[in-house]
Amino acid sequence: xxxxxxxxxxxxxxxxxxxxxxxxxxxxxxxxxxxxxxxxxxxxxxxxxxxxxxxxxxxxxxxxxxxxxxxxxxxxxxxxxxxxxxxxxxxxxxxxxxxxxxxxxxxxxxxxxxxxxxxxxxxxxxxxxxxxxxxxxxxxxxxxxxxxxxxxxxxxxxxxxxxxxxxxxxxxxxxxxxxxxxxxxxxxxxxxxxxxxxxxxxxxxxxxxxxxxxxxxxxxxxxxxxxxxxxxxxxxxxxxxxxxxxxxxxxxxxxxxxxxxxxxxxxxxxxxxxxxxxxxxxxxxxxxxxxxxxxxxxxxxxxxxxxxxxxxxxxxxxxxxxxxxxxxxxxxx
Length: 333
Ligand SMILES: [Zn+2]
Ligand SMILES: [Zn+2]
Known about the structure:
- The chain is α+β, with helices and mostly antiparallel strands.
- The chain has one domain (3-330): HIT family, subunit A (2-Layer Sandwich).
- 27% of the residues lie in helices and 23% in strands.
- The chain has 7 helices and 15 strands.
- Strand 10 (212-215) and strand 11 form a beta hairpin.
- One zinc ion binds next to helix 4.
């Protein structure tokens, strides 16, 4: 019998399609992993060091002199641009619009064209997370920005147009609908139960254990009870904190281990599938809140969304979260 499971955080229902469920290993990709098929350097790549390399504004280079390990540059084709003037919302008859204000940065994660976080040295992953924190905190100083979203697209089905390892940060002057829904639901939970719904979910997962993928003293990755798609994974800090910008250096060491480890299990177990990950942190005005808890969502792109999902916002997951978690736990890293 299929199940309808509810994501308690968003009050969202998901179909766990047990009748058509695939075994975890059946979801493995049949392809050569990018890191095995690509050269270490590509003369045509804008993120490799070459005459065509990215000349856009550079926000950060680590280290500052000598060969770089991480660079942060402006996106060559930005979705949004910093303001040149004060910000206005205009009305045009029935409609509202404003200038496309925001920031769109690219974090070039390595000088090597064929690396990926799953295979990097742990020190390099720590450096990437440190860079997210630096740019997050720098962008947060702009009080016209409401929401800052660091994310990573890996592979063409996840929206990556360049295979060179990179992530992005987009910061917007509004609170997008999904972000607002997450806020509203967590506020409602806090009003009813006097607590953080994320802490509640986290403690339950730690107690039950069957959906845990990887755990350290300060971080844990697990497949949520009502995962919307196969191997959809959450990475939670165990300590309550609503703002990603508050992570400490010790947190970064632990997070790097859990993030790389989880991505490596996905890389080995599913043969380098395309994926997205997103850092979900509280928008401005909700920082230091008792009801919201920052976390990372990893979404392997193993299935395609179709008409039913588009029509309802309700997902059908053709795998069973407990089996997916057990499979990832069994992958040695
Ligand atoms: Zn490259
Ligand atoms: Zn919490």
